[in-house]
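User: Hey, quick favor. My workstation is busy. Could you predict this chain's structure for me?
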Amino acid sequence: MASIAFTGCEDEGEPVTLNDVFEVNGLPTDRFELTLNGLEFKTDVANGLKTNTALAIEASSEGVSYVLSVSDLLEGNYSGKTDQSKVFLNYKDANGVLFSSTKQGMASNFKAEISRYDAEKGVVSGNFDGTLIAVQGNSLLRVTNGSFLEVPVVQPIFGEMN
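Assistant: No problem, here it is.
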C-alpha cells in the first residue's frame, strides 16, 4: 500500500470544493443541469428535501421547473423501472405543460445515481437520464446528461407521535 503526502510553506487559501474539481476536469459545474431534446438547461436554483420516504430535488429557472425524486439519500443507483412512485423526474414547461418519467401503462426508463452525499455539509451530488412523457398526450422528451452538484438538502426532524 502506498501513500502520498504533500507539504508546503505557503498560507492556505479557501478549501477546494467539488465544484472546483469538476471545473478543472470539464465536468458540470451548475447546481442542476440537463439536456432536454438536445437543448441545455442549467440553473443554480435547486434545493433538496429528504423525508422519511424519499429525497426530492426541485430546480427552476426561466419559467420552467423540475422535480427529481429518488427513494433515499444513500449513495447508489435508483431506477424508475423498479419504483416509479419514488424514482421519477417531472418537468413543467413555460406554458404549464407537465411531463413525467412515469405514466400509467408505460414502463419508465428513468434512472438516477447519487454519487456523493456529504452529511457534514448537507449537500448531495449525482446524475440522471431517461424519457419524459406528456401527462396529457404522448409527446416524448429525452433527458440526457442530467446532473445535480452539491444541492443543499434539508432533513426535517420528525418527532414521535403518542
